[in-house]
Amino acid sequence: MSDTAKQPGNGDGAGAGAGKAPARQRTRFPGISSRAYEHPADRSALVALRKINGFDLVLKQLSGMLSERSVRLAFLAGSVRTSDQQFRRLHEICREAAYILDMPSVPELYVTLDPQPNAMAIGMDKPFIVVTTGLVELLDDDEMRTVVGHEMGHILSGHAVYRTMLLILTNLAAGLSGIPLGTLGIQALIAGLREWFRKSELSCDRAGLLVGQDPEVSMRALMKIAGGSQLHEMSTDEFLAQAAEYDAATDVRDSVLKLMNVIGRSHPFPVVRVAQLKRWADGPDFAEIMAGDYPRRDDDRDASVRTEAKASADAYRESVRQTADPLFGLLRDFAGGAADAGSKLRDKFAGFAAGSSDGAGSAGPASDGSGAAAPGSAEGGTSGPATPDAADDGESRPGTA
After folding, report:
1. Residues 252 and 359 in one domain
2. Which of 266, 291, 324 is the last residue of a domain?
3. Given a cut of 60, is residue 290 above it in pLDDT?
C-alpha cells in the first residue's frame, strides 16, 4: 500500500525516505517502479534496454566521452546549489519529491541564471537537477513541485543514462555523414530518438503529478510555461479547449503542418502535454497508483519485453482511435476499408472453396446435378450488391502514427 504516515530519517538513502516528509501530507510510494508512470512507448524501449546484461556498465564507460564530471563542475562553479542556506524552499521541495517517489538518494539541485523557463536532469553516475531563474520566478511552490517531480521522474526512469548514450551514438554517427546516404540514416535515427524523447516527457509529466498530486496544479504549471505569469488572464478550461482544437484541426493540410512542426522538437507542445496529462489523471492508472496498486522496482527485471511492446502498440492504436485529427481520421477509414475488403475477399475465397467441393461431389438442393450453380447464386458467394460489414472495432487499425 502507499504510505501517508511514515516519517523519513535524517539520511539521504532510500531507507531514510530520501528526505523529509512534505509539509502537506501527500501519499508516498515506497519502492515504486518507473514503469508505473512511463508512457507505453517509453516503457517498452526502457524495459528492452534493461534486459541487456552489463548495459549500464557500458553506458557508464561511454559517459566519460562527454565528461560528466566537467559538466557538474561547471554548474558547481557558475550556479547556486540549493541547501538549507541557499534557496531553502526549493531545497525542501527537492527533498519532498525524493521522499514521495522513494528515490535512492536526493539529487543535487542547482539554480542557474537564465530568463528562459527551463529545467533539466543531467548525469549518469550521480544525476543532478538544474532549474533556471526564469522558471523559479514564473512558478509558485506547488507548481515548482510538479516540475521537480518531473525531473525526478527522468532520473528514476534512467532517461539521463539512455539519452547520454544515444547522444554519444548520434555524435559518432555524424562522423559517417560523408558516406553516401549516411545522412539519411542519421536523420532517421535522430527522428526516432526525438519521438522517444517526446514520449519520455509525457512519462515524466505523470511523475510530476504523482509528486504534486493535484492535476489542476500540474496543468496550470504547463499553461504558465506556455503563456507566462499572468495567471489571472488564463484559464485551464480554455487551454484544454485549445488542446481539443489543435487535436481536431480542420483540414488535412493542418495535420501535415503539425507533423512537420513537431519533427524538430524534443518536447511535445504544451497543449498536447496538458491534454495527455488530464487524460491520464482521469483514467484508472492514476487512481490505482494513488491507492497503492503499482509495480515495484524489485520486479523490474521480470518485466516482459513482449508485453511492454504490445502495450506500446496498443497505446499508439488507441491514440489514433481517440484523436479528432482529420489525417488520422483518413488513416482510420483506410484501415477500416482495408480490413473490410480483406474480410470480403477471405469470405469470397472461402465460399469458392466450399462451392468447388460441393460441385465435385453429389449435387445439393441448389444444384441441377451438373455442378453448375443454381440461378440467383454465385460460385459459393451470394447474389446482389455487397453490403458493408459492421463498423470497425479498432483492432485492425494501424498501431503507429
Report:
1. no
2. 324
3. yes
Instruction: Show the cell assigned to 378.
Output: 454465385
Neighbours of 256 (CB within 10 A): 12
Domain encompassing residue 74 = 14-324
- Same structural domain for residues 83 and 229? yes
Place 225 in a pLDDT band, splitting at 50, 70 and 90: very high
Nearest to 46 by CA among 231, 301, 217, 255: 301
* Rounded Cα–Cα distance for residues 87 and 280 (Å): 32
Number of structural domains the chain divides into: 2
Question: How much is the average pLDDT of 238-258?
Answer: 82
| Three cell numbers written together for 43 | 516503457
More confident residue, 261 or 10: 261
96 labelled catalytic: no
Q: What is the CA radius of gyration of the chain?
A: 27
Pair 164, 124: CB distance under 8 Å: yes
pTM tops 0.85: no
Catalytic residue among 92, 96, 108, 151: 151
